[in-house]
Amino acid sequence: MPAAWALLGSLNSISVSLTGLLVSLCTILFMPDTTFFGRFALSGGL
Q: The pTM is what?
């Protein structure tokens, strides 16, 4: 069933990208000085 495999593959890539987004959000929130956006915010740029 190629359609089922294609669906599984797209779901897998979506979950991987969502996980990456969540990780980067957590990095920005909890370790702001390690990211460019955090340095920008901490230096009063926002």
A: 0.50
